[in-house]
Amino acid sequence: MSKKTAARVDPLSLALPLAGVDSHAHLDGQEFDEDREAVLERAHAAGIAQVGNVFLGPDDYAARRGLFDAHPEVFFLMGIHPCDGQTCTPDRLAAMRAAFAAEPRLRAVGEIGLDFHWPDCPRELQFQALREQLALARAVERPVVIHCRDAEQETLMVLEVEGFAGYPLLWHCFGQGPETARRILRNGWHISIPGPVTYKANESVREALAIIPADRLLLETDAPYLAPQPWRGKRNEPAFTVFTARAMAEARGENPEDLWRQCGDNARRFFGL
User: Which range among 97-106, 118-127, 133-142, 161-170 shows the weakest confidence by mean pLDDT?
Assistant: First the structure.
């Protein structure tokens, strides 16, 4: 007997007030070339007031920022991903610095960090790229958004050694347990929760979620990746944050609308929107 297919619930049937923020999405990617406008319309209808689009380096930013000329609700992040650490050259860093000086929609340096899951980029280059971009963030006076995969202790060590305790910093796509959350919080940083919090196996994330102070909590899609239940395995999009928010509220024993507004307010404050 074949497994039953999960019902694909329309996110608009669970729409929340127009106060939410998807703090991290990649809507400039080719996955959205055929229906980007419709995706942004659905986001608005679901209750998303702003979306943070992440450009993975200055080349992508220069080529694709125009996709959002008609969408002031989309703000920008830019950083060289750790898996592309070998491309973090002086010329590209200079291009990033110039872009941040010229474009007020660029609100944070990220996603940057360490990713030891994939072997393609040598670790020493990842460490170098992270340190150089942390210095860039200080120079352009922008918050930092961290990507970390299979490198939690190393990432935390670099951030602490580089003196970023107390600096505006968001731990993107949090997927760990309470111990890691406590260390992030001790440093004064924020935590963003993605769709996998809805997965049955991710009990440790829900346990961590329960201890995060309300004013340090954001939510995200990382679209087109990591779609929440009941859309797991499909392309993610900002409207799907309604599923994530409701699962977060259940884990915390809160009203979904209250959590939605709080996370949105936190994002607006963090990014200076």
Answer: 118-127
pTM: predicted TM-score of the whole model, two decimal places: 0.95
pLDDT for residue 1:
41
Do the domain assignments include residue 226? yes
Asked whether residue 126 is domain-assigned, the answer is yes
In a domain, 23, yes or no: yes
Q: Which residue has the tokens 């007020």?
A: 104
Q: What is the pLDDT of residues 79-95, one digit of tens each?
A: 999 999 999 999 999 99
- Alpha-carbon distance of 242 to 160, in angstroms, equals 34
- List the strands of the sheet with 48-55, edge to edge: 20-25, 48-55, 74-78, 106-115, 144-149, 169-171, 190-193, 217-219
> Is 166 within a domain?
yes
**Two tokens, residue 218:** 């954001």
CATH number of the domain to which 116 belongs: 3.20.20.140
Count up the domains in the chain and report the number: 1
| Per-residue pLDDT reduced to its tens digit, 55-76 | 999 999 999 999 999 999 999 9
Q: Find the domain containing 179 and state its range.
A: 16-271
In 4-103, alpha helices (H) = 36-46, 58-64, 90-102
Q: Are 160 and 134 in contact (CB under 8 A)?
A: no
Other C-beta atoms lying within 10 Å of the C-beta of residue 6: 11
∠ CA 134-111-36, nearest 5°, is: 150
Question: pLDDT band at residue 120, thresholds of 50, 70 and 90?
Answer: confident
